[in-house]
């Protein structure tokens, strides 16, 4: 099988947009340099944090191309290829394979309810586009409205050995434990909720695909590194900080706070796609105040410069 597998802290990358909505190529390069310098173990682009539902298929391809060039094989890189239309998912997977990515990931088709047989056909059709390319199921039932059960993923892996992992954003720790129990610790079980990264590692998870790492990669990497070094006390302290940050980030409006946090570190791409909205001045002031309070409480600097 080709491609390096995702483990450790994998950043769920943002998509930097210029003011007119085009992809900011230079910003992608600076962002990738920043992530790699801060120790992230991989990057995942054009996912939920990357605003994929608001992009055309050509924009998604273009973003993948820009990220492949910017990452330049320095860390494993995967791209999201899921879509409500299986034809689009197949096209995106073929394009990603031709780019030479290390892996692809896909949410289930969303909006309609789909039973396990529908989901089985969807995922196996995509995975068969390149049987040598590592494929990860992206379970996000709150947004996709379809839950990919451990039993179904085991069936998928048996049918397509290149289905090697799952990113679980169910917010349900028992579900993650079930993945490990049914699929085994050799399967690439990746936590998708930043509030449960340490708990996932303790149970044998391979790592996390982290939205918090987009703006604060040092924090998430230190949780992982402290766990690996056996310093559970420090890992627990930093996990609590990550959990508190998640509350701050999840206040409305969606996604804009993550780009504001990057602005606080010296980046300059605050724009989100319509129909997302920018933050008001009051929301910006409140966010900055809450971040400052967390920095003081946990004695951890979050908003130092880019490099």
From TrEMBL:
Pfam families, A to Z: DHDPS
One of the GO biological process terms: small molecule metabolic process
List of residues binding pyruvate: 49, 209
Keyword terms: Lyase, Schiff base
Active site: 138 (proton donor/acceptor), 167 (schiff-base intermediate with substrate)
CDD domains, per database record: DHDPS-like
Keyword Acyltransferase among UniProt keywords: no
MF terms in GO: 4-hydroxy-tetrahydrodipicolinate synthase activity
SMART domains: DHDPS
The family this protein is said to belong to: Belongs to the DapA family.
Stated name of the protein: 4-hydroxy-tetrahydrodipicolinate synthase
Organism placement in taxonomy: Bacteria, Bacillati, Bacillota, Clostridia, Eubacteriales
């Amino acid at each position: 099988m080709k491609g390096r597998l995702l483990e450790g802290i994998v950043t769920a990358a943002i998509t930097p947009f210029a003011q007119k909505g085009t992809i900011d190529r230079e910003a992608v390069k600076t962002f990738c340099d920043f992530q790699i310098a801060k120790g992230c173990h991989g990057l995942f682009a054009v996912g939920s944090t990357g605003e994929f539902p608001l992009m055309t298929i050509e924009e998604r391809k273009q973003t993948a191309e820009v990220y492949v060039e910017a990452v330049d094989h320095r860390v494993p890189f995967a791209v999201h290829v899921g879509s409500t239309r299986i034809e689009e998912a197949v096209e995106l997977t073929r394009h990603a394979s031709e780019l030479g990515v290390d892996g692809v990931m896909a949410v289930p088709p969303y909006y309609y309810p789909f039973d396990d047989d529908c989901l089985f056909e969807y995922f196996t059709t995509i995975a068969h586009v390149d049987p040598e390319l590592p494929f990860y199921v992206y379970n996000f039932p709150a947004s996709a409205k379809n839950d990919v059960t451990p039993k179904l993923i085991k069936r998928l892996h048996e049918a397509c050995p290149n289905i090697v992992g799952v990113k679980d954003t169910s917010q349900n720790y028992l579900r993650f434990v079930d993945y490990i129990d049914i699929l085994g610790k050799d399967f690439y079980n990746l936590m998708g909720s930043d509030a449960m990264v340490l708990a996932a590692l303790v149970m044998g998870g391979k790592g996390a695909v982290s939205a918090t790492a987009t703006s604060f990669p040092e924090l998430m990497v230190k949780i992982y590194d402290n766990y690996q070094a056996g310093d559970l006390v420090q890992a627990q302290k930093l996990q609590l900080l990550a959990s508190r940050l998640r509350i701050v980030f999840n206040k409305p409006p969606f996604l804009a706070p993550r780009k504001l946090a990057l602005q606080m570190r010296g980046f300059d791409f605050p724009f989100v796609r319509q129909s997302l909205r920018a933050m008001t001045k009051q929301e910006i002031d409140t966010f900055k105040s809450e971040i400052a309070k967390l920095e003081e409480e946990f004695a951890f600097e979050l908003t130092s410069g880019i490099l």
